[in-house]
Structures are given as C-alpha cells and as structure tokens.
Amino acid sequence: MNKKIMIIDDEDDTIYLVRSILEVEGFEVVGVSSGAKCLELLDIEKPDAILLDLMMPDMDGWETFHKIKKELPDVPVSILSAKGQKFDQMLGLNVLNANDYITKPFNNVEFVERIKFLVGDT
Predict the structure, then answer these.
(1) Are 76 and 114 in contact (CB under 8 A)?
(2) 108: confidence class by pLDDT, cuts 50, 70, 90
(3) ∠27-115-83 over CA atoms, to 5°?
(4) SS3 call for 20
(5) Omega within 30 of 0 (cis) for the link into 47
(6) What is the pTM of this model?
(7) Distance separating alpha carbons of residues 52 and 121, to the nearest angstrom
(8) Contact 40, 5 (CB under 8 A)
(9) Contact in structure between 31 and 7 (CB atoms under 8 Å)
(10) For residue 60, what pLDDT is reported?
C-alpha cells in the first residue's frame, strides 16, 4: 500500500513540485492550499505524514500544526518552509516538536530520502 503524504502550502507551484517528485517514488500525494482545508480533510484522507508550510494567509503553520496534532497526534509532521534561518529551524523542531524541518528550495534526492524516513520507509 502506498504511503499518503498531505502537503499544505498556499503556493500551487510547491504542491505541484512535491506531488511530481513523490508520486514518481510511489507515494500518494494530497495537496491542500490552506490550514483550514487541511483540517477539513484530515479524517477523510488519513495521511501517513504531513508536510506543512509555515507562512500561509488564513491560518499560519504554527496554529495549523497544533490543530493537526490535536486531531492526529501520531502522524508525523515535517515543516516545509522558505524560512531557512537556524532560529526558525530550532523553533520548528524544538518548540513545535515537528518531526523534521525542510527548507525550500530543497535537493530532490535528499527530499525523497527525508520523506521516506518520515514515514518509516527506509
């Protein structure tokens, strides 16, 4: 069975890129453009892992993260953000307790390996 990855990002290009990369590797990808839409679909889609952008207009990634974890505490969540400063990474990993923090732009090969690790498919 394919692992399902949900990506939450307000940029369609990022969703398209992630989908293109991961589907070739056998993942099923569900793309949503907002935190609110993600929360609507969590029970329906039942993702194996979530990639979450921090900078979104309706509900930022911080708030979305907390709501995801309330709904699905065991689903791994990786931050996927253009905010690449060490400070931002440490906030994501140590304050939010995200499972990983991937900065955009990313190396495709490394990205796939990190997603495989995230879902326990190494």
Answers:
(1) no
(2) very high
(3) 125
(4) helix
(5) no
(6) 0.90
(7) 20
(8) no
(9) yes
(10) 83
Provide the strand spans (E) within the chain. Answer: 4-8, 28-32, 49-52, 77-81, 100-103
At 26-38, the pLDDT tens digits run: 999 999 999 999 9
Nearest to 100 by CA among 118, 83, 75, 73: 118
Cβ atoms < 10 Å from Cβ of 109: 9
Of residues 20 and 89, the one with the higher pLDDT is 20
Q: What is the CA radius of gyration of the chain?
A: 13
111 Cβ neighbours under 8 A, 6+ residues apart: 21, 102
Give the tens place of pLDDT for each residue, 60-86. Answer: 888 899 999 999 999 999 999 877 677
* The total number of residues written for the chain in this structure: 122
Task: Please report, as a single letter, which amino acid is at residue 93.
Answer: L
> Class of 4-118 per CATH?
alpha beta
* Residue 121 in tokens: 């498919």
